[in-house]
Write a structure and sequence with these properties.
alpha/beta, about 50% helix, Alpha-Beta Plaits, 6 strands, 2 domains, Helix Hairpins, globular, three-stranded mixed beta sheet
Amino acid sequence: MKTRITRLLAAITILLTLQGCAEAIVVGGAAVVITAFDPRPMATIVTDQITDFRVGRLLKKDKYIGKDSHINTLVYNDTLLLTGEVRSKWLKKYVSDIMSKIKDIKKIHNYLTVTKPSVQESRNADATLTAQIVSLLSSRNIDDTEIRIVTEHKTVYIMGLVDKATQERIVKIATSTRDVEKVVPLFESAI
C-alpha cells in the first residue's frame, strides 16, 4: 500500500513539473489513476501514454491513411501494437515505417490486415470478447492491471509484464473463451 501511495504522489509530482508539456497534461491524468497498480515504472507509464497520444495524432494527420483504414494502437512498455485494417500491403508497411520514427517506440508488432475496414458490429463483438476475457481473468484472481488486451476479428492480442506461469494461465483462459479464434501472446517476462 505504501508503494502505491508513493507511486501516486510521484506521478502527481512529475505531472506538475511537466506543466509546460500539453501532451503530458492531456494523457497524464489517466496515468495517475493506473500508476498505483501497474507493474511498469511510473516514468514508463507516462511515456507510453504520451507516445500513444503521439501515435494517434500522427495517424489522424497522415495524408495516406484515410477513412478507408481502421487502425487501433496500443503502446505498452515502449512496444507498439498495431491492429485493424488497411487498403494495401504498401500502406501496412508505410504505417510501420512512420511509427518506427517516433521517439520512445522500441518495438513494433504490426498485425494490420489488408482488407476493407471492419463494420461496427464486428468491433462491438470484439469489445465484448475482450470484456469476457477480462471478467474471466478477474474471476480467477489474475490482476488485469498488469496486462492489456485487444481483440480484432476474434483474434486476441495480449501484452503485459507477468511471470511465465501467469502468462500460461492467461493464454489458456483466453484460448478457451467462446468465439475466440486465435490468441497472440505478446508478453514480456516480469522479473
